[in-house]
């Protein structure tokens, strides 16, 4: 992630502030933009936002969230088939969607998603900028001084550049010329009150992007205009914006400062790194500002290293007592199983096809409905508390305490909301008293635990790769704050071992007991303390594995 820079006004005391004359607020009040009857649907829904003068507001969202339509509304250029059905949008007192109010070009400068497209077809930089200015400001007379000033605004001070062919410029210079073209104005015109930038770094490598962001920072200091940045790049938003708004389904669902998101991400990284090094200290965790659960008596760490403990018998996180699934004819789908899983421990349930692994996993989480066609025998205890066979008969807290992760590609690709919404819904149910910022911080923690960055928050579930969807499925399970995490590896998929390895790594960092459902005994030996082997021809066997070998191999596999 790029380091956060201060792109504010710095020591410029002349910039207008709230309450001063000439102060301009950008406002959207319950703005709704819909498609025509033929296209159908609503793109923006009762959208409300207020952007103070001089602020850079990033609007982040995935594909189809409505970012580009919002930008079009702000510059008064809704596309064909789109119309404002209700609400208002104002730049100060000016309504850009009201054609009778005047030309939006006097108030708004705009850089589209294809910033260099307007440079195409022109022999020189002079021709490209002049053509755009003539279209936006009818009657303007060609003036090289104005064109040079437009280039200088983005750090290009060589007048000879006007005679260059845009196609021959390097990537960074060409993008800056495109920005100069977008913001060029006659000397008699006022600076724009609003600058709208749609994916200004699209297609640029990191070095060129650095150059362009520095140019944007210089532009901001000169113009002192409000800036709306439309992007899917959360790192750019954190680096450049004063505030970040998340757009989803045509609505702004949250606004926060980059410092808050950046601090949360740093804190999560600090705790994660400390945990991996097994040196989490109270001072470091307190400094990070992130709460972590204390290690359980049966967890990996001090007890496994042979250090002193209080010798108090610990209550198993999961205990099965003669637990079985039986069909009505008396045939057992799973044999009677008695096993204990300590808090922080790891158990692999192995067996070949038809051994009952998946049925046992479903029975443990309460996913089977006992009936005349199916009986569940024995007892299941979570943290010493007996559980009802059906999940519906358990309390909400009991259902959250044990989570099963099973990858379902069809379901993942059918979900159109964002990862952020996917996680926040669970977090709010699990932690109803948490503040909005607390929920956001927890979402960042979960992404860190499963090894993905915060930029994935604004991705739609249906746009994720199979590997990303699996990681988010694990993050969603952890959002319930479970004491036991169960994971069934994808069948006939070599990637399944990597997912199980990820769960083994998560187990140490999230302090949960882990149950892996796998047909691979190698995975079981590498990642778990014990293995419960199911075999249709014999009684189940529980095999202990070497803890040091399990920990080391599991980390290597992850």
UniProtKB/TrEMBL annotation:
Describe the location of the ABC transporter domain by residue ranges. 26-274, 318-556
Family (UniProt): Belongs to the ABC transporter superfamily.
Recorded GO molecular functions are: ATP binding; ATP hydrolysis activity
* UniProt-listed Gene3D superfamilies: P-loop containing nucleotide triphosphate hydrolases (3.40.50.300)
Q: What is the lineage of its organism?
A: Bacteria, Bacillati, Actinomycetota, Actinomycetes, Micrococcales
Q: Record's Pfam families?
A: ABC_tran
GO biological process assignments:
transmembrane transport
**Source organism, top-level taxon:** Bacteria
Q: Which PANTHER family does the record match to this protein?
A: D,D-DIPEPTIDE TRANSPORT ATP-BINDING PROTEIN DDPF-RELATED, TRANSPORT ATP-BINDING PROTEIN
- Annotated keywords: ATP-binding, Nucleotide-binding, Transport
Organism, scientific name: Leucobacter komagatae
Protein name, please?
Answer: ABC transporter domain-containing protein
